[in-house]
Amino acid sequence: MGHTSLDKIKALQKNPANVRNLCILAHVDHGKTTLADSLVASNGIISSRLAGKLRYLDSREDEQIRGITMKSSAISLHYASGEKDYLINLIDSPGHVDFSSEVSTAVRLCDGAIVIVDAVEGVCPQTQAVLRQAWLENIRPVLVINKIDRLIMELKLTSQEAYTHLQKILEQVNAVTGSLFTSKVLEDRAVKEERAEEDKEEGDIEPAECPGLEQVYDWSAGLEDSDDSQLYFSPDQGNVVFASAIDGWGFSIQQFAQIHSQRMGIRAEVLLKTLWGDFYLNAKAKKIMKGAHAKGKKPLFVQLVLDNIWSLYDAVVTRRDKEKIEKMMMSLGVKVMTRDSRHSDPKVLLSAICSQWLPVSQAVLFMVCDKLPSPLDMTSERIERLMSVGARRFHSLPLQTQELKTAFMQCSSDDTAPVIVFVSKMFMVDAKALPQNKQRPLTQEEMAQRRELARQRHTERLAAIQQTESGEGNGQSGSTTPATTPGGDNTIGQIQGLPLKAKPEEEEEKETFVAFARVYSGVVRRGQKVFVMGPKYDPAQGLRMVRIVSACLPPVPHLACCTMDSLYLLMGRELEELEEVPSGNVLGIGGLEECVLKSATLSTSPALPPFIPLNFEATPIVRVAIEPKHPSEMPKLVRGMRLLNQADPCAEVLIQETGEHVLVTAGEVHLQRCLDDLRERFAKIEISASKPIIPFRETVIRPPKVDMVNEDLGKQQKVAVIHQVKESDTLHLDPSGLVTLTTPNRQATVGVRAIPLPEEVTLLLEGSADLIRTLEQAGQAQREGRTLDMSTWTLDALMVLKSRLEVLLQGRKWRNAVDRIWAFGPRRYGPNILLNSVEGYQRPSVWHCLEREKGEKEGGAKAEASAIRDFDNSVVSGFQLATLSGPMCEEPLMGVCFSVERWDMNFPTQRTHLDSVTEEDSNSLDASVSESPGEAAGHPEASGKAGGAGETPSHPEGAVAGAIQGRRRAEVVAGLVDCYGPFSGQLIAAVKEACRHAFQAKPQRLMAAMYTCEIMATAEVLGRVYGVLGKREGRVLQEEMKEGTEMFIIKAVLPVAESFGFADEIRKRTSGLASPQLVFSHWEVISSDPSWVPTTEEEYLHFGVKADSANQALKYMNGVRRRKGLYVEEKIVEHGEKQRTLSKNK
Q1: Which H helix or E strand runs over 1085?
Q2: Where is the composition biased (Basic and acidic residues) (predicted)?
Q3: How far apart are CA 720 and CA 722, in angstroms?
Q4: In terms of C-beta density within 10 A (0-12 exposed, 13-18 middle, 19 or more buried), how is residue 793 classed?
Q5: Structural contact between residues 628 and 580, judged by C-beta atoms closer than 8 angstroms
Q6: Which residues partner with 898 through β-bridges?
Q7: Which among 592, 847, 890, 989 counts the fewest CB atoms within 10 Å?
Q8: Which residues are CB-neighbours of 263 under 8 A, at least 6 positions away?
Q9: Parallel, antiparallel or unpaired: strands 279-282 and 1035-1041
Q10: Cis link prior to 908 (omega < 30° from 0)?
Q11: For residue 732, how many other CB atoms are within 10 A of its CB?
């Protein structure tokens, strides 16, 4: 097929029924880009000889050097099948786990996916991940089993063994798909049961309808009724292609069914059903019979398909039998060029034969057009899921929003249809690569004109040279030169006279952002204005406000307006300019860099809700601090990091309390790519990056029952080891672990106890951060006398969270604990709890806003609100500060509950009564000022999320300063300011110190971030893999042999702190035979105590008096303290001896 013109692609875009949007998904090095090369070569964009070697869609230099794809890139291809012409928008995605965010951006824009599996390695960890991502986005996959040539050349399998091996690979892929299907069915069943219970409570279903029935839980119920006929991969269904992309061949069994039906006289439909399976050909009866395995016969697939391919490889590559090759070429009807047949590399001849006999592009593109859905076939389930943000159900959206579902289903390109576009990512393009900046090809007239002008200049120069030679003096020659060469020399003079200052400006505008997007409805036109829906945009609120305001920029929260300056057709490394793009197509949009950060929903209708956020498999965990080598270039670094943040879907950029600029990435390879981009593309300056900043958490555990040598600890000994708090006149430690602290002015006393939270509660709080943040916003609004509109799904989710906490916090010490929760921390939504255990202080719970929202009377609510003590918020602020930086190494706390058991305030003078709500507001101002640096450092997006409820700050800076001065004036009047400062500040400091001392009174431990590590290795290098894991504190969880291969799969956990250089070391130690995949998994408590010293006789015998063996927790803790500039207790000189001089030695 020749090169497709741009006009042809524009015409194909207008017929969405023949458009296929698909991406290529696979594990790293399974052949995605090689297959993409073959598909691109079918359109004449690259030579078929270069397919697999050029890697056309890997346009970055580091992608070519490393040999892996790092970013998803798209190209539009034309495919003709019979009388139909198809447009295929193909997106190639990375397979490395560090770049799985790029896979998420690709999957969102597609309707189908080609999943590639290596015939030798089978289903790998990232294969499962991409199948899960495709499942979550409701897109239909087809399967390509690639690298079948490795079964012949590397594993030396016979055709029969290869058939068995391919069957097992299909079973593995179908097992993954089946488990996803089962979980979905059971989840749907659980939702139906919940709805049925709700209807039962409301009285819709009477219990009398089913009397005397015992409820028995049947886990398999619902699976029998669910249709899974189209779910699995099977060659006879036409959704599997067997291929070797590097050799250029691939086939589906439909092709062989048609070939052999003509030769054998058997109908193609019969062959299609029997070519794959336990069938064999009875030569005598000339019938296809069942039971090949039982009778020891060759299956049809082996006899009619694999044997032919095996014999071709044997003749061409192994034996190089020219006569047999000639016979095969004659029977196949294939002609090859002489230079291919005489080439020294037999693979060249093989690929020349196979690419004509079984071209892989034809097999794959036919399967794609036949089996994958068009944009018109988008399921209603997928549409509802895209529009249902969070726990919000589609049916709870406004009516106008629900009507947009029809626009999705119709995928109409009418002028009346609303424009709906989703931008999945922003990518940077060199300004020179934009079509409008490229030099357009010259017409014949222009070329002739320029040729004539060049001739004239050449003639004039010759004449000038002759005059110069014939002239006697220099003056004459000097006078004639400018006169005779006005066209040439003056132009050169003008070019040389251009100001040099223009160069930096050009460099600054050298790169521009293009949005990677898809049109779901309507026609997108160049210069069109659309709304940009923010992630917290509420269509109900937007519809109310847009009715009032008619301008393009309505003052609606999280809704902006922007213009699409230019539209592009994505053609791999090149862009083509378009005037309009109809619905159902993938495109690039220019001019959105000011409105869109990473991803966004665009529409002409304000009724459209924002699409659900992209599902990222990898969590950014690796942090480095970055600074320019020359401090004067700091503005360039800041600008470069802002551009990097916009261009990378997964990278995060933030500024810490210390002023460090920190880059957060998904892994080591991702970090290296981001640093290279900063140096070469975004900042264009020399930068220096710190060693990776390893995140840790601090926690407390229950007192250990055994010591370091597994001997039982007595109670007295245990208390002596744990309690390390030094008492003073203002600090008292109770034997039970209660810490009592008095403020410096002796006017308030606080008693705090630290209790470890159960692990399940910690995980629940960590996963519910967004819900807890919403709960805190609602409580704050209620205290300030405002109302915060909360949707029903948010209320339901909060009630579920509360009930789950009640279930998990069981036992005597947790009695009524959920209703006594004072606050969460740090930053008011973290995985730590402040508990109100003060006798006689019945303050409203954090869940109080839920009860009010559910319809309680306002009078009762106000009466309860008045029960809040003065300075209540100071206690909360002290708790927030304590949980933000723990006493071990100033890292955030995790899984700790601080129970306030005593809070006494006795003032020597009778102070005037301040209104509690006003006092609380002023204290919250003080707390916000004290917490702002940590907030800005930890979560730059928190400011956006916190303001997401629709309210704006009511005080400018002057008003805040005035409010603080007013509060201090009130405290002076009330006698609350003394030589120790304002009383609220003293109370905050006292609570913070009490929490820290209570934490130290318990057995304290560090929590390390952990990677899940999956390694594929052969038996020969298994011991070396274990050696590297053991050296880096890794722990092997599982080891299993991959069936049908010599490969072992090792599953292990590895601390993030030990992971840097791990992949390189594994590859070096195993000579490249093992490669790990690291994905952030969880936080894990390090069992060793960082402050441990030997105390028992057994420990002294085992560890020695000095106990100088490596303490891993202490090493991590000292490393963090040293980085933060904190005091580290260590000996600088050990075993120091007096120096002996030479004179004394004589």
Answers
A1: strand 1075-1085
A2: 447-457
A3: 6
A4: middle
A5: no
A6: 754, 834
A7: 890
A8: none
A9: unpaired
A10: no
A11: 16
Chain length of the chain: 1146
From 836, 801, 831, 804, select the one nearest 817 (Cα to Cα): 836
Residue 1137 exposed, middle or buried by CB count within 10 Å (0-12, 13-18, 19+):
exposed
pLDDT 10s digits, 986-1029: 899 999 999 999 999 888 999 999 999 989 888 889 999 999 99
Q: What share of the chain is helix, strand, coil (3-state, %, to 5)?
A: 45, 20, 35
Q: What is the β-pairing status of strands 896-905 and 832-836?
A: parallel
Inter-helix orientation angle 916-938/872-884, to 10°: 10
Q: Name the CA radius of gyration of the chain, rounded.
A: 36
Cα 222 to Cα 187, 213, 215, 788: the distances in Å are: 10, 19, 16, 40
State the chain's mean pLDDT as an integer. 79
**What pLDDT digit, counting tens, does each position of 853-906 carry?**
555 434 444 444 446 777 888 899 999 999 999 999 999 999 999 999 988 888
Distance from C-alpha of 206 to C-alpha of 954, rounded to nearest angstrom: 51
Write phi, then psi, for 288 (nearest 5 degrees).
-95, 120
Pair 988, 877: CB distance under 8 Å: yes
CA distances from 579 to 13, 15, 585, 915, 991 (A): 13, 17, 14, 64, 64
Cα dist from 496 to 177, 339, 454, 458, 493, whole Å: 66, 52, 20, 21, 5
Structure tokens belonging to residue 373: 């859905």
Which two tokens mark 136? 């979550």
Q: Coil, strand, or helix at residue 427?
A: strand
pLDDT above 50 for 480 = no
Count the neighbouring beta carbons within 10 Å of the beta carbon of residue 844: 22
Beta bridge partners of 1079: 1012
Residue 499 has pLDDT above 70, yes or no: no
One DSSP character per residue, 7-69 reads HHHHHHHT-GGGEEEEEEEESTTSSHHHHHHHHHHTTTSS-TTTTTTS-TT--SHHHHHHTS-
- Tell me the per-residue pLDDT of 115-159, one tens digit each, with 9 for 90 and over: 999 998 888 888 988 999 888 888 899 999 999 999 999 888 999
Closest-CA residue to 889 (of 1056, 664, 672, 1123) = 1123
For residue 980, give the 3-state DSSP assignment: coil
Question: How far is Cα 114 from Cα 539, in angstroms, rounded to an integer?
Answer: 35
Alpha helix locations (H) across 848-940? 848-853, 858-865, 872-884, 916-938
> 270-274, 388-392, 603-607, 854-858: which range is least confident on average?
854-858
Tell me the two tokens of residue 609. 């809700």
> Which residues share a beta bridge with 611?
none
Q: What is the pTM of this model?
A: 0.78
- pLDDT score of 252 more than 70: yes
* Interval 723-760: pLDDT, tens: 455 666 678 888 888 899 998 888 889 999 999 999 99
Q: How far is CA 737 from the centre of its chain?
A: 42
How many other C-beta atoms are found inside a 10 Å radius of the C-beta of residue 11? 12
> 88, 165, 100: which is closest to 131 by C-alpha?
100
**Amino acid in position 1120:** V
* DSSP 8-state secondary structure symbol assigned to residue 750: E
pLDDT recorded at residue 855? 52
Name the token pair of 35. Answer: 């297959």
Name residues whose C-beta falls within 8 Å of residue 439's C-beta, 6 or more positions apart in sequence: none
Share of the chain above pLDDT 70, in %: 78
- Residue 92 tokens read as 């190639």
Contact by Cβ (8 Å): 593, 599: no
Q: What is the DSSP string of 544-613?
A: HHHHH--SSS---TTEEEEE--EEEEEETTEEEEESEE-TT-EEEEES-TTT-SS-EEEES-TTPPPPPP
